[in-house]
Automatic annotation (TrEMBL):
The keyword Amino-acid biosynthesis does not apply. It comes from the Bacteria. This is YncI copper-binding domain-containing protein. Residues 1-31 form the signal peptide.
Length: 247
């Protein structure tokens, strides 16, 4: 490839790279508490709870995860810098997993931490929901417990793990049902963490964007990347043909 050809293609590749960077930024802006796990119905599994710290002015100091009543916790791996408690469920609720940060190990703004739990046989159904409460150093408490009931993700979605995509979702949620144990209302705050309504406890990232607004943006960026790549290929072919005719 001649030096002139390289100079003409470089701007096109730069445009594609910039579009990819914007795409990554859009994904980061919609981060929420998530549950991840490679699960098979009837088999034990290891679950990971990924928790981002979304408030700019405070750190995350405590995480409380409510486990579905029909899922047994077998063990919880130790996480450096965090104290863990497993509390029995009361009032029809499942077991609670509580992680509290030691001084200096809090989740800093714009950072995240992953908490693990080993569970017994996974029940054979469409999905499992893990209502989660996130407590910040300034006393703000965010309840991630809202079920998805439409095309757009709610402001504080409950972490949901899909177990069997081929199973029939119960009626009521976005996939067909509101999962057992989920509620659109926030649970009562724990001691030392005053309750804050959704308007005052909304993380900065959640206020700026949601999945409904980022979807069209991602589609446009993807189209731009494809066009840029096509133009680059066309320029290469045209230059190759021209060089061949002069040979």
């Amino acid at each position: 490839m001649s030096r002139r050809t390289r100079r003409r293609i470089t701007p096109l590749i730069t445009v594609a790279g910039a579009a990819g960077a914007v795409l990554l930024s859009a994904g980061a802006a919609t981060a929420h508490v998530r549950v991840i796990g490679d699960v098979i119905p009837g088999k034990p599994a290891t679950l990971q709870f990924r928790v981002p710290s979304e408030l700019a002015e405070a750190t995350t100091v405590r995480i409380t995860v409510e486990v579905p009543t029909d899922l047994m916790i077998t063990s919880v791996p130790k996480l450096d810098g965090w104290n863990q408690e497993t509390l029995p469920g009361t009032g029809g609720k499942g077991t609670q997993l509580v992680w509290t940060a030691e001084q200096g190990h809090e989740i800093q703004p714009a950072q995240s931490e992953t908490f693990q739990a080993n569970v017994g046989p996974v029940p054979d159904r469409y999905s499992l929901t893990f209502n989660t409460e996130q407590t910040y150093s300034n006393g703000t408490s965010v309840a991630w417990n809202q079920p998805k009931t439409g095309d757009e993700e709610p402001e504080f979605p409950a972490p949901v793990l899909v177990v069997d995509p081929e199973a029939s979702p119960p009626p009521g949620s976005a996939d067909g049902a509101q999962q057992p144990g989920t509620s659109a209302s926030a649970p009562a705050p724990s001691a030392g963490a005053p309750s804050v309504d959704a308007a005052t406890s909304a993380p900065a990232a959640a206020e700026e964007s949601d999945s409904g607004s980022s979807g069209p943006l991602i589609a446009v960026i993807a189209a731009g990347v494809a066009v840029a790549a096509g133009l680059a290929v066309a320029v290469l072919r045209r230059r190759g043909a021209r060089d061949g005719s002069h040979a």
